Amino acid sequence: MIIKVNDVSFKYDSDVILENISFEIQDKEIISIIGPNGAGKTTLLKCLYKSLKPKTGSIYLFNKNLNLYKQKEIAKKIGLVPQNSEHNYFFTVEEAVIMGRYPHHKKFSKETKEDFEIAKRNMELTDIYKLKDKYITELSGGEFQRLIIARALTQTPTILLFDEPTLHLDLKHQFELLELLKRLVDENNITILMVLHDINLAVRFSDKILILSNKKIIAYGEPEKILNVEIIRNVFGVEVEINKSKTGILNIFPIKAV
């Protein structure tokens, strides 16, 4: 177990966003968080990164209470890829990626040869090393998303958190990105927790799915064990058909809103 969330609740003023949330994450898993808009998916990610503090409950990272970590310590263990990263700074790709080494530096220290080697390795892994001298303002949406992942990996984290990693990407680039994330888990011992809107992509690329709705966890587990017509109707308000493809992949077909 690398993350344990124990009875966590969060609210903005009097507006309750999360209520009594509890679950655990093991190493080398891909977990997708799905649910309707406003269910608290992004808020949950921010609580796990300690950029928001729960009103009640506790979160443990490697069996240590998250509140006992300094933010710089968390950044060494968790990489966060937000939904909308700034795209308009005048940095080269290499300069942007090497910023991921910040948690490992003392104040005013400079990048080392090792830092550049780590950044290069992650640019190669995400297939952007050939773009290292381009300015980030010149990148396509897919290229920029891979840059943000390379920068997060350059932190050398054990866990990666993604908020809508496929947002604004076409179908080809969505698959390429999610296949890259799966490879990171298999080859780099990374654990991934990501927010996704597309249920079929979540099913295809996740070991487990966590369904959030009405401030609470509705279900958590392997896709085939927790997803059914009734739960999708109740959570998303959509009538669906569910079947398996010839390759054994679960497919969910929306029919109508209910």
Helix-strand blueprint:
Layout: E1 3-12, E2 15-25, E3 30-34, H1 41-48, E4 56-61, E5 64-65, H2 71-77, E6 78-81, H3 93-98, H4 113-125, H5 141-154, E7 159-163, H6 171-188, E8 191-195, H7 199-205, E9 208-213, E10 216-221, H8 223-226, H9 229-236, E11 238-244, E12 250-257
Helix pairs in contact: 4-5
What would the keywords be for this entry?
alpha/beta; 258 residues; Rossmann fold; single chain
Write a concise synopsis of the structure shown.
The protein contains 9 helices and 12 strands. It is of the alpha/beta class.
Global mean pLDDT: 92
Radius of gyration: 19 Å
Q: Quick one: how many beta strands?
A: 12
CATH class: Alpha Beta
Task: Kindly state the percentage of residues in helix.
Answer: 25-40%
Secondary structural class: alpha/beta
Morphology: globular
Question: If you consult CATH, what is the topology?
Answer: Rossmann fold
Number of domains: 1
Percent strand equals 25-35%
Task: Please state the second-level CATH architecture.
Answer: 3-Layer(aba) Sandwich
Number of helices: 9
Largest sheet: 6 strands, mixed
Query: What is the element string, with H for helices and E for strands?
Result: EEEHEEHEHHHEHEHEEHHEE
Strand order of the largest sheet: 6-7-8-3-9-10
What does this structure look like?
The chain has helices at about 40-50, 70-75, 95-100, 115-125, 140-155, 170-190, 200-205, 225, 230-235, and strands at about 5-10, 15-25, 30-35, 55-60, 65, 80, 160-165, 190-195, 210-215, 215-220, 240-245, 250-255. The protein is an alpha/beta fold. The chain has a single domain (about 5-225), classed as P-loop containing nucleotide triphosphate hydrolases (Rossmann fold, 3-Layer(aba) Sandwich), CATH 3.40.50.300. The chain has a six-stranded mixed β-sheet, sandwiched between helices. The chain is globular and about 55 Å long. The mean pLDDT is about 90.
